Amino acid sequence: MNGSEFGAGPSGFRVERLASVGSSNDEAMRRAREGDAGRLWIVAGEQTGGRGRQGRVWSSPPGNLYASLLLIDPSAPVRAPELGFVAGVALCEALRAALGDDDRLAIKWPNDMLFDGAKLSGMLLEGAVLPDGRFACVIGIGVNCRSHPTTTPYRATDLAEIGTSLADPAEIFDRLASALAHWLAIWDEGRGFDAVRGAWLKSAAGLGAEISIATPTQRLSGRFETIDAQGRLVLATSAGPVTVEAGDVFVTAPARLATGG
Predict the structure, then answer these.
(1) How many domains does the chain have?
(2) pTM of the model
(3) Which of 72, 159, 164, 165 has an alpha carbon within 20 to 30 A of 93's alpha carbon?
(4) Has residue 72 been placed in a domain?
(5) Residue 219: is it exposed, middle or buried by C-beta count within 10 angstroms (0-12/13-18/19+)?
(6) How do residues 179-191 score in pLDDT, each as one tens digit?
């Protein structure tokens, strides 16, 4: 399967499967710099240099899903961060189908998927202005299908451990690709972000609960109220509401899933 491209993918997307890559995100960005028109999925059997947010190592042995979607000029660059929420909603939808709509599945802001509080998947969104002026955006998604790391700061799990019969990476990818094509159309270059935001909040981990957030400069605690129109987390603190653009969330009180406003 190394280097073979097949199928049109949903709604005109292309899919290329590689046995092994350093990083599926890096491979997708390399294709962008070589002139690829985008709407291209790179799906890897394993990654030898997988990484997550903030340069963290992403354990990438065979048996799990490693997939990156390359989009060229998907929107104005200022709206590109919204794609993380688009992908989060799509991945949650795909995993709900595999897990029988289990309500223990939730999205931890901004981009992790949890099952019963344990990390099931992660996401890395990257963008770059290309030499020819085009804007390339890559959505990288990793799902623990048949194994999970045991040395992470957070408890992790995988689909096989959970017990679902749908733990095959190819099946999960098919569901993900279809769901993401659907939600990209709803998002519509940012015009439909309100709908994406509403769907995201319905599956948000810790919504309405006491949480703490480790940002690059400080640690904050308060009640998770909502995400705003730009996807920033709104935290109710004793000093008033605080808007957080980036950070690691820790739920410190029982979480609930509810529709946010």
Answers:
(1) 2
(2) 0.89
(3) 72
(4) yes
(5) exposed
(6) 999 999 999 999 9
